[in-house]
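Before the break, one more example. Copy the sequence into your notebook; we will annotate it together after we see the structure.
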Amino acid sequence: MPYEHIKYGVENRIARITLNRPDRMNAWTATMEREVRLAMEDAAHDDEVRAIILTGEGRAFCAGADMNELAQLDPNDIRSDSWMRPFDMNRRADWQTRYAYYPGIEKPIIAMINGATAGIGLVHALYCDLRFAADNAVFSTSFARRGLIAEHGLSWMLPLIVGHANALDLLLSARKFYAPEAFRMGLVNQIHPPEKLEEATMAYVRDLVDNVSPRSLAVIKRQLYEVPFQTLAEATIYANREMALSVQSEDFKEGVAHFIEKRPPRFTGR
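Here is what the structure looks like once it is written out:
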């Protein structure tokens, strides 16, 4: 389908979603919200796609909400359920809210953070599974400096990633911080010079796509996002059940065979 505020493409089993309003630093709009969700769902349901990259066009990842739209925001829109999808009984309710649907997608989602990332842009980066950033990228939660609060589950997700004390600092102050600090606190997984960011990100993602079982990726992602809701015993029981299923899978057989035969793997996800 034609997109207005994003670009979407698939190449070599990697889906790439690019926020595409570079003249506005990829400021978030209602149109972008709809299009990103549609593209994520397309990638999730495309059997040819094994990993997803989310990035921004130009010098920003996403500098936050479009101020023109924010100035005209109707409080009733925030309470509206018009953005909801039909409830999926097979998926945890936590991963069916307005923006927190990324963990429910059983493919790795990598944020390639090419520049400024603030407000709702930071929310989306945090819901990605991994974050690779340019070493000059700047971040901010922004909300407290706009008279707003920690939106869209950020009060839950940010401490999970950076810890309680760091989350309080970033949310209360809404200060700017840069990629090296984000890396030190674990908000981003890797940092690279801007001219090397795409090369490094693509090398990592290609390795996932070419050498890792997509079935294993899906199960491991599900395991890790279940952990905050589980005891150690529950996590272990869940893992034992999944292990029994894994050893019966085609990907397990292929994982052993390609190692013994010293050849590249041919995983199918089954």
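The longest strand covers residues 6-11. The two ends are 29 Å apart (CA to CA). Try to locate both features in your own notes.
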